[in-house]
Design brief:
Elements lengths: L3 E10 L6 E11 L6 H20 L31 E6 L23 H13 L10 H10 L1
Parallel strand pairs: 2-3
Antiparallel strand pairs: 1-2
Helix pairs in contact: 1-2
Amino acid sequence: SSGFGAHFAEVAVHRWTGEVRVRRMLGLFDIGRVLNERTARGQALGGMVWGLGGALTEMLEHDPRTGHIANRDLANYHVAAHADVPSDMQVDFLPVRDDHANPMQSKGVGELGISGSGAAILNAIYDASGARVLELPATPDKVIAAMERA
């Protein structure tokens, strides 16, 4: 039996610049019996930050002539940093044990933190601004263009 979860995000979108700021996020997960609360929470939070970066900043660029990766260092590939992550980021686990998973009644956390976190942010952008961004990452230029179409 697999783990599952739900993500919720609240964002603010600047109407003139298209800048998106994630104000708060919540991830609620069913991972069966939680064997180590601290490491499970860290795994889920890390995935949520990873999803935030994928939704807002991380864009892999390819050289159109050769197909090689053009931005292959952190100077040109922006990963989410501390300033990009909301201080109100919460992870909760459902207090449910899964008798069908294994004798310990646990499931893996794995990448549950990233699965759905980007979609929650894009839906929050839509709720905040009416801008439906369909291409990741939701950079300011894409958000402004989507706001103009809305």
